[in-house]
Specification:
The protein is α+β, with helices and mostly antiparallel strands. It folds into 5 domains: 175 residues, Hypothetical protein af1432, CATH 1.10.3210; 141 residues, Beta Polymerase, domain 2; 73 residues, no CATH class; 78 residues, no CATH class; 75 residues, ACT domain (Alpha-Beta Plaits). 47% of the residues lie in helices and 15% in strands. It contains 28 helices and 21 strands. The strands form 6 sheets. Strands 1, 2, 3, 4, 5 and 6 form a 6-stranded mixed sheet that branches. A 4-stranded mixed sheet has the order 13-15-14-16, with no helix packed on it. Helix 7 packs antiparallel against helix 8 and helix 8 crosses helix 18.
Length: 739
């Protein structure tokens, strides 16, 4: 094995040896097989990259050692460190992924394969916005599959940024720009502040060199003038904490160059009004101690109003926790003080890596790790879902815009009624909230309360709002109009899927209706009505013969003339006219023939439609044999017959009834507002619905209840009316009334 010497510095950064990497991972990896795998990977890259040099002139394998060093410093596992060492070997040598799998196993090979595919996306020279977006999409999709791919890629990019000085100015700008757009936001959202901050500073050095140098000068001058004041503050705080017996570690933190630049040049704050340039960080042993320390500090020093943040009670989306307060010291200087536990500090520095650091002999599972991360980091779950769902059906530019909007831009934080914090993109509405809770909640959403008040579904939410979603089993689902105001890509995707599915179902329903009518006509030529035809067709052997799973599937097939109705009749051996079964008919109380019959009932059985549930043609119905009053027809879900078993009888809607309307009692629930009743009546009138009666009342919770009796011809017509009622602003539930 070639001995690797350790150069002193390169561009201000020390060059590490493999022995330095070993010193990091041997603290938490002791398994001889795992250590041997990492060592074999190192030996392999020495051999495969031995003749390759970087632009700086140093051996290429130095880069691989540095990437491995960074991931080992994050306490990544043996597979991740091995893949980090090997991440360029397929791209830059004759080694194949199959070779990697044979030598180092399937897990390592999969990670290296993903990294290789990302690497092969050559950085465009920004000549085509669409091509650049496609590059970025493939990078995101490649990284979403495995969190370890992200960590290695971030380490790879960080070291490349550290050594940008050896590249041309054009490449320096291109790589810095892409790093700021793609990798810095991901590092931020994963809570990898130690990587994010360094990346930002390095990128700024090449993107805005004059402003970068200006910030350094101002920062250097400020640090010199405040160093004595800072030391005095540290000493006084340490004395007070010691007196109260509170365990602590106190240190100073200087705000990053990029953070100061952002406040000065992006937000327009003068340098002397940036209060958190110098900060004190106090580490203690428990959450309770954090609040105790905060109380002592506020007792000693005046806090700056509006500058206190409790990220312990309400962690950031990347799991960051800490107390932040800004105080005025005795000499008039402003200082930010951060108070946290040791565990919180680890998460603040290395984010997701601290939460899921490799723990030997703990039943570690990369798949479970991925699921855990998706469970705790909702944005990452959306990132994975968006990347997998839209890889093929969304153009690259739209995908990158959606991802940037959902994952990387500012967010609002709202609450469920039970106090759970939900993170949403800025500009989100109750519909976005509903879909974040669950797709089914979004699909059945008909109304929303924000802070206890009913609001339109397109209301823009603010941080701190408490949201309650109203759903309805009778909801017709989202409309295309929702796409005009929802903000989150998860909601947009779910709405589009629902609409596409609904359109497909409507097309299928049309085919079913068309095929069914063809069969009705063919069977009718043999004097067989619809009800008896359905009995003929509900035959497993017949369905199996024609290669379908259900009668509806058979009707769809008939629409395509495979088979034709005559082929079905031939299969059933129906050669002659079949007599219709006799039905018993009775007068409705309102007059006219009853549209229902019972088989074999003769013509003396009285049949009437029940007034309690007002069944309509098209409803699933059942007959109830009354004492001395014949058969009362109910909807099958009518609670008045739900527990009956002995006195029920099968009944059927007639297929030859003439058009008629039937009274139905309905109840509409909506948010109370002006002109609501007028709009409901106008809608019913425009759709030629006869209104027998209508009543409205206001409720204490800002809602309104409207009851009405309307005349409709059948269940489908009623469903269509319900859909139109639910489209009225504020209406969130419509039901049939059962008396």
């Amino acid at each position: 094995m070639e001995k690797v010497s350790k150069p002193l510095v390169n561009g201000g950064y020390p060059l590490h040896t493999f022995e330095d990497v070993e010193s990091l991972y041997e603290v938490y990896i002791t398994n001889p097989d795992d250590k041997n795998m990492i060592r074999r990977a190192f030996d392999f890259i020495l051999e495969m990259h031995k003749d390759q040099k970087r632009k700086s002139g140093e051996p290429y394998y130095h880069h691989l050692i540095e990437v491995a060093y960074i991931v080992a410093s994050l306490h990544c596992g043996p597979v991740t460190i091995t893949a980090a060492l090997l991440h360029d070997v397929v791209e830059d040598t004759d080694t194949s992924i199959n070779d990697i799998e044979k030598m180092f196993g399937e897990e390592v090979a999969k990670i290296v394969d993903a990294l290789t595919k990302i690497q092969r996306l050559k950085l465009s020279r920004i000549t085509s916005e669409e091509f650049e977006a496609e590059d970025h999409r493939k990078i995101f999709i490649g990284m979403a599959k495995d969190i370890r791919v992200i960590l290695i890629k971030l380490a790879d990019r960080l070291h490349n940024l550290r050594t940008l000085g050896a590249l041309s100015p054009e490449r320096q700008l291109a790589i810095s720009k892409e790093s700021m757009e793609v990798f810095v936001p991901i590092a931020h959202r994963l809570g990898l502040d130690v990587i994010k901050s360094e990346m930002e500073d390095l990128c700024l050095k090449y993107l805005e060199p004059e402003k970068y140098n200006e910030v350094i000068k101002l920062l250097s001058k400020k640090s010199k003038t405040m160093s004595k004041s800072l030391d005095n503050l540290k000493k006084r705080l340490a004395d007070v904490l010691f007196e109260h017996g509170i365990p602590f570690d106190i240190s100073a933190r200087v705000k990053s160059i990029y953070s100061i630049y952002a406040k000065m040049y992006l937000k327009g704050h003068p340098f002397n009004e940036i209060y958190d340039i110098l900060a004190l960080r106090i580490i203690t042993d428990s959450e309770m101690r954090c609040y105790q320390i905060l109380g002592l500090i506020h007792k000693m020093y005046k806090p700056v109003p509006g500058r206190f943040k409790d990220y312990i009670a309400m962690p950031k989306p990347n799991l960051y926790q800490s107390l932040h307060t800004t105080i005025v010291s005795g000499d008039g200087n402003f200082y930010e003080v951060q108070i946290r536990t040791e565990e919180m500090d680890k998460i603040a520095e290395t984010g997701v890596a601290a939460h899921w650091a490799y723990k030997e002999n703990s039943g570690y599972s990369s798949k479970q790790e991925q699921l855990d991360i998706e469970d705790k980091l909702h944005w990452f779950r959306d990132f994975v879902s968006m990347s997998s769902e839209t890889a093929n059906d969304t153009n690259a530019k739209e995908y990158v815009e959606n991802l940037t909007q959902d994952i990387f831009e500012s967010n609002v934080y709202v609450f469920t009624p039970k106090g759970k914090v939900i993170e949403l993109p800025v500009g989100s509405t109750p519909v976005d909230f509903a879909y974040r809770i669950h797709t089914k909640v979004g699909d059945t959403c008909v109304g929303a309360l924000v802070n206890g008040v009913m609001v339109p579904l397109n209301t823009v939410l603010k941080t701190g709002d408490m949201i309650e979603i109203k759903t309805s089993k009778n909801s017709v689902g989202p409309s295309e109009g929702w796409l005009e105001f929802v903000r989150s890509s998860a909601a947009k995707s779910a709405i589009r899927k629902f609409i596409a599915k609904k359109n497909a179902e409507m097309l299928r329903e049309e085919k079913i209706a068309k095929g069914k009518q063809s069969c009705i006509d063919a069977f009718g030529d043999r004097d067989i009505d619809e009800a008896e035809m359905m009995e003929y067709l509900d035959n497993e052997k017949l369905l199996e013969h024609f290669g379908v799973d259900s009668v509806d599937d058979l009707f769809v097939a008939v629409t395509g003339r495979k088979p034709v109705p005559s082929a079905i009749i031939d299969y059933l051996h129906i050669k002659k006219t079949v007599a219709l079964p006799q039905g018993g008919f009775a007068k409705r109380k309102s007059g006219g023939d009853c549209p229902v019959y019972a088989k074999g009932g003769g013509n003396k059985i009285a049949i009437s439609l029940a007034n309690c549930c007002t069944p309509l043609p098209g409803d699933d119905i059942v007959g109830y044999i009354t004492k001395g009053k014949g058969i009362s027809v109910h909807r099958k879900n009518c609670p008045n017959v739900a527990k009956e078993k002995e006195r029920l009888i099968d009944v059927y809607w007639r297929s030859d009834i003439e058009f008629a309307t039937y009274p139905v009692d309905i109840m509409i629930t909506a948010s109370d507002r002006n002109n609501l009743l007028v709009e409901i009546m106008n809608m019913l009138t425009l759709n030629k619905v006869i209104i027998n009666s209508i009543h409205a009342k206001s409720n204490a919770n800002s809602s309104a209840t409207i009851t009405a009796t309307i005349q409709v011809s059948d269940a489908k017509r009623l469903h269509d009316i319900f859909a139109k009622l639910l489209s009225i602003v504020g209406v969130y539930e419509v039901d049939r009334i059962i008396h």
